[in-house]
Specification:
3 strands; mainly alpha; 4 helices; three-stranded parallel beta sheet
């Protein structure tokens, strides 16, 4: 299963996790929420982070196993009830 490399915004990493893709995040410079998102993903063991494009990091990430499917609670459904 292929992985996803992307910035550390919210939507694309969330979708990739939901599909069980491994993640390699590169937070955009100067974006505090992206730094925070990347740290959370790394701390939870759900992905890897690189600060700048680095072939060693990418090669190490490519050799890692696939991610695992993540399921999210149906918050909207719970609120509606």
């Amino acid at each position: 299963m292929l992985g996803t490399t992307c910035d550390a915004g919210f939507e694309l990493p969330s979708k990739a996790l939901q599909l069980g893709k491994k993640l390699l995040l590169r937070p955009l410079n100067g974006q505090m929420e992206q730094t925070s998102n990347a740290l959370a993903i790394q701390e939870l063991g759900l992905g890897s982070v690189m600060r700048k494009l680095d072939t060693k990091t990418v090669n190490r990430w490519l050799k890692m196993p696939s991610g695992r499917l993540q399921s999210y609670p149906d918050v909207a459904g719970s609120i509606a009830e």
